[in-house]
Amino acid sequence: MSAGTLAASTITTPSVAYHGLMPIFIVLGAALLGVLVEAVVPRRERFNTQVAVTILGLAGALVTVVLLRHTRLATPSPAGNDPSFAGSIAVDGVGLFLQGTILVLAVMATLLVAERTVDAGSPIVASAAVVVGSPTDRALARSKRVQTEVFPLLLFAVAGMMIFPVANNLLLMFVALEVLSLPLYLMAGMSRRKRLLSQEASLKYFLLGAFGSAFFLYGLALLYGYANSVDLAQIFAAQKSSGQSDVLLYLGLGLLLVGLLFKASLAPFHSWTPDVYTGSPTPVAAFMASCTKVAAFGALLRVLYVGFAGTATDWRPIIWAVAIASMVVGAVFGITQTDVKRVLAYSSIAHAGFILVAFVAVSKVSVSSVLFYLLTYGVTTLAAFGLVTLVRDADGEATHLSQWSGLARKSPVLAATMTILLLSMAGIPLTSGFIAKFYVFSAAWHTAGPLVVIALILSAVAAFYYLRIVVLMFFAEPPENAPTVSIPGATSTIALTLGVVVTVALGVFPQPVVDLATKAVSLVAR
Amino acid sequence: MHSYALVVLTLIPLVASIGVFLLKNEQGRLAKFISLFVSLVVLAYVVVLTVRFDTGATAPRFQYQGSWTWIKGFGVHFALGVDGIALVLVLMAVVLVPAVMLASWTSFDSRSGAEEEPTGRRRSVKNFFALMLLLEFFMIGVFVATDVFLFYVFFEAMLVPMYFIIGSFGGPRRQYAAMKFFLYSLVGGLLMLASVIGLYITTGSQTFAISDLIGKVPEGATQKWLFLGFFIAFAIKAPLVPFHTWLPDAGAEAPAGGAALLVGVLDKVGTFGFLRYCLPLFPQASTYFAPFILILSVIGILYAAFLAIGQRDMKRLVAYTSVAHFGFIGLGIFAFTTQGGTGAVLYMVNHGLSTGALFIVVGLLIARGKSRNVNDYGGAAKVTPILAGLFLLAGLSALALPGMSTFVSEFLVLVGTFTRHKGLAILATTGIVLAAIYVLYLYQRTFQGKLTEKVAKFRDANPREILAVAPLIAIIVFLGVYPKPLLDVINPAVRYTLHDVHQTDPAPKLGPLAGGNK
Q1: Which ipTM value was assigned to this complex?
Q2: Taking an 8 Å Cβ-Cβ cutoff, which residues of chain B contact chain A?
Q3: Which end of chain A is more exposed for a tag (fewer CB within 10 A), N or C?
């Protein structure tokens, strides 16, 4: 630990189980390749090349995740007598399941970002640095020029997200947090339409995100002071033996949680969510709402279940409070919203609360139910955001609820698809959302019966705004200047079809994925 | 032995529904014929099942059973089976569906044909019929499921087609009514979900099969809480006062055909749930809460009847009469006597048929007058004698005139209640008088009196409309004279249920006059 140790002994390199890290390396490699493509490949072919590199990179990583499915290890192994970073990265069931989930969702998100037929060019602005409203900006808005840096940025974010839930070491977790956040801050500001709103979202996300990270770091420092280590297993062990004041431990955990809860958009650290989702380009919002949430909950799971499993009675009240707050905020405030993207944002806050309900029961079922919920929620939300991109008027996406009136008459397919997704979010049987809710709530019932009842009542409240959209689409008359429904291009069509099919399939035949999630319950410390 | 009989039964309407959805909007006529044909096939199929149902003393409780693993991780089975109660309710449902289809045959054909809103937009005919078939699938499923989880799935999913029937094909305030209907039911459903999960956890039996769960719920506070979750869901669905406020809105705004199925069948799931789930699973809690429920039932009978008398909106009126009738059913179930239970089940069937018929006839009248307001009518019997006759017969069956099957069931319920709770039975009996008032008062205001100019242009019921209503009335009259076949099917199932609640009929106290010769 001390500086002297390093100097005195011969330096032995730690032995790293590289094969366990392959998925992360492949994504990072693809990201770097994307940067090269940006520099080398001629503009005409750049877009297709970037899409291919991104999809292939993500798919390759997914394949390695599948190949690694039985691997359970923590790497690197200690180098000499310096154990500081030993077992920093866990390759275990939970980690691999979450990585797989993130990769699948990222592929879908990429397909949405790669959409080029709906808006001239792409949903991403051609040059994000141009001043809004300037002549150049107006010219760019009309041109078909596209910008492709978004793909490597997305890959870097994905790489960060993949490290985030497998980090057994808080310092590494912090690095992952930054790696995933920085590209997201940029991507939030890249909307082709409503650019000021987008830039505002980007700035807001960045400033608040920086605060969140600072809290995380502060908590990390306090925990180091308590346990003399940033390793989760050491922190766990220290809670039994440390002579340090418990104030350090609880303050540290509290501050750490602030950072994590912020990323998972849980109340009371949720206030950025509606603004950022609304301002960001919709495919990016879809990416943030699904992948970031999976990664953040993965990290939360690891911190609480590996580092603080022994003191569950102490942090359980916090989880109760945060879960109730999130569900109330998401369900009640969502009712008053008049913008589809804001509704989806509040829905994501409510769902974060539902997921958190399972955390109170520190058990195998609670872990597998969280894994299942994250997958189903991610797929459904991503597809819902994807559909939002299709409803357009002259100013781009028509997201005001009144503009969605009577949409079923214009496009029955879109309305029916959206209805399936919304019913899934409301937790109606025969959709994945119902199975996921059932799973999570049955995991929590024994430890927190009243919390489950509260959650169920609030999911009825949340159902109101999902149903309101259905009512508008099917039962209301269309407005005068009704928006048009664009026909999605091939890539979006694949993503949307996948989203709906998975939503229904996991509602009717959830067993294979339930099995997968059950088998994946293993958390490897060092 | 796994019987596929019920699987086939549920699949027929589901497959047909998908097929009809896939038709083009212009193929409305084809959609109608396919749907009617399929619903008649289903009816014939259920009749065969009923005839072959074993009612002997040694017959098993559930028949045509089949069970297949669905979600292994949760111990959920796709388990189907019917006892006498479920069977007669399925039969009632599948009788109503073709009748409703016939009655709604031209309702959505053209702008002018719509029940109300003559200038309203054109609605998709094939979607209406596809939704009807989808609803039939869920209605059958919810009665034949013998796995609590599967039941819950049907129970909740059933809301979706009804929501679209009300919302897409209903009256002027359809958005509000559809939303209210869905949210009320959803709140109840989610409370029930809490109980379903609780049931699963507390019994620790790793299964949702109803037969494995009976008698496993530990007595005490847990059982009471779990009971309340189920009870509130069913009380909203049924609906019992004070959970009834959604029904008048939904019943009034739904198209007449939809309303007939909503009140006739969907609401029966609530009372069916009392019998199938509340009583057997939570015997102690059922006994504990029975007095409250009985009092609520009686309040419902009287309160709803008074409200019905005061209504001017015909569909709301019929909806309120149903709330009153559900009070009778609740009374019969929670009196814990064989007569009461059997009467309640028979009441469910009769009420489905009679209220279904009444809604259909009211719908036919509204389609002519384009108004639900009673004051817009008067003297219609002079121009539409057949319609008036159908209306009167449906109405008389709703007020339980002797000779109609509704009388048999109402009598059984009151007798069954009287043996245990004399005061409540006497109070409930006054409900019959009120029923006579609201039915006859409605008939008098619409079909009797001075013929108005508008009403004079009405055309009488055509053969199709007669064909839709007459069979229902024929069944009501037949069962009123000879209810034995149905009672034979119902009785064993009711006895099983009462056995589950550890209740036996109170021994008759023989007075000096009656018991003298023994």
Answers
A1: 0.91
A2: 70-74, 121, 152-154, 156-157, 159-160, 163-164, 167-168, 174-175, 178-179, 182-183, 186-187, 190-191, 193-194, 197-198, 200-201
A3: N
